[in-house]
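Researcher: I need the complex structure. Ligand is flavin-adenine dinucleotide. Inputs:
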Amino acid sequence: MKEKPGPGRCASSRGGSTPTELRSEMQGAMPERFDIVVAGAGHNSLIAAAYLAKAGYRCLMLEGRPTVGGGVKSAHLTLRGFTHDVCSSAHNGIHGNPILRDNELKLGDYGLEYIYPDPVFHMPFSDGSYLTQWRDLERTCEEFAKFSKKDGFAYRRMIAEYETVKPLLNAVTFTPIGLGKSINDRLAEHPRGKLWQRRLAMSAWEILRDTFEDDHCRAFMMGCPYSLQPVQDPMTGRAAYIPLHQQRESRPLPKGGSGALTEALSRFIEAHGGVILANKWIKR
Ligand SMILES: Cc1cc2nc3c(=O)[nH]c(=O)nc-3n(C[C@H](O)[C@H](O)[C@H](O)COP(=O)(O)OP(=O)(O)OC[C@H]3O[C@@H](n4cnc5c(N)ncnc54)[C@H](O)[C@@H]3O)c2cc1C
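Model: Output:
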């Protein structure tokens, strides 16, 4: 941290482009001037502040807790020397975001480094059998084929079909509502758009039940990773395809734990003139 204003209080924002002042309680100290004050330093506000800082705005971040990161933090929670992720652990979703996908903030320069494990996911079953997803597609298809030859082919077909719509679905995920085409408009331009509209309207369970014949294969697809909604609910069809995302991209893990992401963002903000203060609860 470059400049620490010390124990300060936020003067009320005067609106417009007038910078907010943070007056030091130390007598005679010059007031620090900021363009933007951000409440809380979880990963979402850190990302917003990082883009603002990149655009030239000077940001002050006030975090109530002793450390930044919110739910995206790592700590020694059990034995000394063992680092645990406090809440968030999976970084698959955020890998599709332009911040990492297009390396917009070059967070590698601020200490962020990812590991891409292979095997990707391993699921043991109570009957002693198991199914392992490898980054190699052939090898993964063989794992499905252990249970059913037909399911080995089904997995291969599913991934080939999905990859034709994946860029389109990903684009929708990272386009704020109102700032780009809707999912239906995009699918209308796809040669099999109607089929995909139907699939997305189905439940994930219906898709997996119809695609695979063996229950091990179905269980793997439903639990790898867990679905965010009950798989039998209508409109959860997209969740049936979640395991295919990690087939090629693995399950990226930040070196040093999930918190390495928020630590890199903090360094980025500070390197761009921002100030981050911990133990500062915003009351009003
Ligand atoms: C058990 C668990 C597991 C999860 N696993 C995953 C996962 O594997 N992958 C994944 O992508 N997501 C996961 N999540 C979700 C992820 O952790 C959250 O979506 C993410 O942390 C939300 O980020 P945020 O920045 O919006 O809010 P938060 O992380 O909640 O950050 C908000 C910050 O603001 C601070 N704050 C709040 N009020 C004030 C105030 N008045 N003054 C000052 N500071 C304030 C808080 O102290 C906190 O640091 C998990 C969540 C939980 C609970």
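Model: Summary of the prediction. The radius of gyration is 23 Å.
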